[in-house]
Amino acid sequence: MEFISANPTGPLTLGNARPAFSADTLANVLTCAGYNVTREYYINDGGEQIGRLGESVLRRILQQEGHSIDFPEDLYQGEYIMEMGKIIAERYREEDGKICTVADLDNEQLRSALSREAMQMCLGAIKKTISEDLKISFDVWSSEQAVKDSGEIEKVLTRLREKNLMYVKDGAEFLKTTEFGDDQDRVMVKKNGAYAYIAPDVAYHQNKFDREFDLIFTFMGADHQGHAPKLTSALKALGNDTEKLRMMIVQFLAVTRGGTTVSLSKRKGNIYSLKDLIEEIGYDAARYFLVSHALSSHMTLDLDIAKEKSERNPVYYVQYAYVRLQSIIRKAKVQGILPPGDLPAELTSQVVIDNEAETALALELFRFPEVMEDIATSFAVHQLPVYAYDISRAITTFYHEAPIMSETDPVLQKSRLQIAIAAHNVLGRVLDLLGISKPDIM
After folding, report:
1. Domain 314-434 class?
2. What is the residue extent of each domain of the chain?
3. Which residues make Cβ contacts (< 8 Å) with residue 4, sequence separation at least 6?
4. What is the pLDDT of residues 36-53, one digit of tens each?
5. How many Å apart are CA 141 and CA 131, to the nearest integer?
């Protein structure tokens, strides 16, 4: 399961966080369903954007040195570029006695080294964000540059040539992807001998098939939507069973505060980051909201609602339902109705369904395996927070209409307590799968 895979040219944005939380939650569900899931990050460190990053940093260094030079709009504009420039320029002076000049804009060796250093700084920041803010752990970190250096691209091209699926036109080398469902044949090798954009991706995905996964997920942004069919066609040409491949297209995310859209642009530099979001609304709310919409649909996150401590905020509502169950169980232990320590698997075998609230909650509990199976086969992970809200609504009604601690009939009291324990177990499991905390009090 490959996800995020953001270019190492700046901080992660909320556009990256949406697939991150959704993919990680789906991985949790698939693990629960019995799959052995590998979480993987593909570092896009071999493309032209790394050169633009280096030029961005170099031009900021030169401006900080007092040189009057322009800064094209297609370069990276964020303040983080200036900060990296300060750090790198200081290291150059201290370690090498080097002070950058305008002539260095034509120094390919320096620009290449600076690009790689800036990329490593961005990648380090991304890894820190993933670990500390997203709280996600990747099993594998793959690299586009490593794919290029390993010779895997040439091996793939050789296989395609041997199958007579490549041809030369206008000096470039094309793959016959139209024979495998694409709307046009694709350039694999440009006329200058450089690999086309798609070539490293084909080799990287071939590596995924070579590792013999039962399912292969690639999460990509809506701006890469057109990349999916040509990549799939190329992998078919290589003889792979592309039914195993799931291209998960993530539509755009908008964030509003007070009715005004918040900028998420990395290139322009006005970045509302994942850290900003978590500091403003909290980790649990961020994760819940970003998982709660189908990835195939555009999403608008209202920060004002996400911060509310009321029933308008679904994550608050869900966690409060769990707290209510915690309170019931805690009181039952104090009064000796439940033993101390772990909850018993079965408190009573005489479960009595006495009113509509109990019936509604019991039916929601029985839905849990069905919801899990559906997500594990449809991969529509947004169904999980929807189910969490549905079961929380049933718990809230049950809490009000089927009192437990004040019930005088011991058989009915234990029966309701048994239902409460079952609801506690199911909702707790759902919160674990969502990666959301289970508060004891609120």
Report:
1. mainly alpha
2. 48-126, 314-434
3. 12, 16, 19, 20, 23, 41, 130, 219
4. 999 999 999 988 899 999
5. 13
